[in-house]
Amino acid sequence: MKRLSLVAVGLLIGFAQTFGAEAWLTDFKEAQAKAGELNRPIVALFTGSDWCPPCMRLHKEVTTKSEFLDYAAKNVVLLEVDFPMKKKQSEEQKKTNHELEEKYGVEGYPTMVVIQPSGKESGKVDFAAEDAKEFIAKLDKTVKKAASKS
Question: What's 39's DSSP letter?
Answer without folding.
Answer: T
